[in-house]
C-alpha cells in the first residue's frame, strides 16, 4: 500500500473509518532493546540479560520493553501518512492502549492503522488513529490502542 498524502482537513476526513495503511516490518533486536534500557533507566533482566532470560524467562529469550514497542509508533506512522500544509503536529494522547503479547527479541513488528475519528476544532485537526502493532507470524498484536494527534494546518 502506498503512503497516503494529506493536504487538508477535508482530505483527511474523507478517510474516516478506512484502513490508512501499514508500515514496513521493523526488526527489534537486542541492541535496540539495550539502548532503550539505557535511555529509560530500565535494565530489568528480562530485557537485557540474554543468558538469564534463556533459562528463567517463560519466553526463553529477552523481550522488548512494552514502552519500546509503543515508542516505535511515530517512526512507523510516518511511513503510512504524510501530512502537508501543517505548522505543527502534537501528540495529544492515547486511549484504550493494551499490550497484547511481548515482542521477543529478533521479532519483526509493523504498524497497521485506521482513521477512527476526526474533528475540526477551530482549524485544528484532531485525528484519532486506531492502531495495532503486529508481530510477524503472530495472530495477536503486541500493542493496540487509539493514538490522537493534533494537526495545525496552515
TrEMBL record:
Domain MaoC-like: 12-124
InterPro entries: HotDog_dom_sf, MaoC-like_dom, NodN-like
Superkingdom field: Bacteria
Pfam family for this entry, one: MaoC_dehydratas
Signal peptide: none
PANTHER family, per database record: MAOC-LIKE DEHYDRATASE DOMAIN-CONTAINING PROTEIN
Name of the molecule in the record: MaoC family dehydratase
